Amino acid sequence: MNRALSTLLTVCLCLGLAVNAQAQVRILDRIVAVVNDGAIMESELQSRVAGIVGQFEADNRPLPPAQVLREQVLDRMIIERIQLQLAERGGIRVDDGSLNQALTGIAGQNNMDLEQFANAVRADGYSWAEFREQVRNDMVISRLQQRSVSSRVRVTDREVDRFLSSDLGRRMFAADFHLGHILVQVPSGASPEQLEQARNKANGIVQRLRGGADFAETAVEQSDGPQALEGGDLGWRPAAQWPTLFAETAIDMQSGDISEPLRSGAGFHILKMIERRGGGGEHVVTQYRVRHVLVQSDALTTDNQARAEAQRLHQQVVSGSVSLADVAREHSDDPGSRNQGGELGWVTPGQMVPEFEQMMESTPVGQVSPVFQTQFGYHFLLVEEQREADMSDEFRQMRARQALQKQRFDEELQTWLQEKRAEAYVDIRLDQ
C-alpha cells in the first residue's frame, strides 16, 4: 500500500470514528436557570420535583399539571439560590456540629434517634447526604433572614402597651388560627393594567373557591406564595403572631371561610380559615438563669478560627482552670453581657434565637454546654438555675412584643425577598 493511500484510509477511519462518536452524543444535563454567577441544572430541578411528587403521593393529594409544578419548584429554587449566594458573601455558615444538633432535634420530634432517622430517610428513597445538605441550606437561609430582616423591625414599649389595651389585642390573645393562603403577586412598579389584571385574577379565584373548588389544589396551581407547593398551608399560629393584614381579617372568620382579596405591597392575598381554636391563657413558664460566651468571626477572624477559639475557651472552662464568668469578661464578643461575666439574667423561652434556646433547655443545671453556633457566632453556656415562674403581666407583655415582632418580620421578609429577587440577574431557560 502506497503512502498516499495509507494516509487517506487513516483520515477516513478517523472521520468515521468522529462521525460515529458525534452520532452517539447525548445531552446528560443542561442549565434551566442562571442566577447571578451560578446556575441551576436540569438534574437538580428533576430531583427536587421528584421529591415534591413523592410528598404529594404520600399525602394522597392530586398532582398539579407537570409544567405548573416545574415552574413553581424552579421559582422556589431561584429564591433559595439567591439567598444562599447572599449568605456565602456574608460569611454565614452552619458547621457540622450545629447541623447534627438540628438533625437530632428533628429526629427527636419523630421519636427516633439520629441513626434511626437517617435509616428512615433512606428507606423513603432519599439520599441522606442530600437531606443533610438541604437542612444545612435551610439553616443558613434562616440565619441570613434573621440577620437581614430583623434589623428592619422595631417595636416600642408604647406600641406594646397600646396593642394590649386595644380590643383587637385582647381578642387576638384569645384564639389560634390555622390558615391557608394564596398570593396573586403584583410586580413592583406595576402599571394600572397589571394591577387590575391581578385583582381580577384574585376575584376569580375567590369565586371558584366559594363555589367549591379545592383550596389546596388551587393554591398549588395559582398561588405565587412561598407555601404554594404545600397547598398554601401556613399552619397554626397564635392570632397575635399573624401579619396584621391577615389577623385583622381572620379574627372574624369561621372555619371554612374564604376572605376577599387583601391588598399588600406583594399583591393580593386570599385566606382560608382552615380551623380556629381558643388560645391558651397559661402564664406559668420555665425560666433559666444563664451565662454564656460568644466568639464571632470578623474581617480578621475566619469562621474556622472563631470556632477553634470557642473550642479552646470551652476546654479551659470544662477543665476547671478558669470560670466561665472570667472567660466571658476577657474574651466574649457579646457587649451586652461581657462586663457581667456573660450573665444574661433570667431567660424566658421566646427571648432567644431557637438554637440558643434548644441548647439552654437541654443543658442540665450546673453543667457547661457544648460549643454551638447561632446566627451571631459560636457560643457555649452555663445554666446556673431553673425555676417555674408566673409571669402574669410580664408574660403578656413578652407575648405581645413577640407577636408584633413576628407580624412585622413576616411583612418585611416578603418585601426583602422581592427586593433581592428584583436585584438579582435571573435568566430562566426552562422552555428551551
Give the topology, please.
Layout: H1 3-23, E1 31-35, E2 38-41, H2 42-58, H3 66-89, H4 96-109, H5 114-123, H6 128-149, H7 157-165, H8 167-172, E3 175-185, H9 192-210, H10 215-222, E4 233-238, H11 244-250, E5 262-264, E6 267-278, E7 284-295, H12 303-319, H13 324-331, E8 343-347, H14 354-362, E9 372-374, E10 377-390, H15 393-423, E11 426-428
Antiparallel strand pairs: 1-2, 1-11, 3-4, 3-6, 5-6, 7-8, 7-10, 9-10
Counting DSSP H or I runs of 4 or more residues, the number of helices is 15
Average pLDDT score: 84
Number of strand elements:
11
Radius of gyration: 27 Å
Give me the secondary-structure category: alpha+beta
Strand fraction equals: 15-25%
Distance between the termini: 51 Å
Low-pLDDT windows of residues: 1-23
* Percent range of helical residues: 40-55%
Q: How are helices and strands ordered from N to C?
A: HEEHHHHHHHEHHEHEEEHHEHEEHE
Major sheet attributes: 4 strands, antiparallel
Task: Please state how the strands of the largest beta sheet are arranged side by side.
Answer: 4-3-6-5
- The global form is globular
Descriptive tags:
four-stranded antiparallel beta sheet, 432 residues, disordered N terminus, alpha+beta
Question: Nutshell version of this structure?
Answer:
This protein is α+β, with helices and mostly antiparallel strands and 432 residues long. The protein has 15 helices and eleven strands. The strands form three sheets. Strands 4-3-6-5 form a four-stranded antiparallel beta sheet. Strands 8-7-10-9 form a four-stranded antiparallel beta sheet.
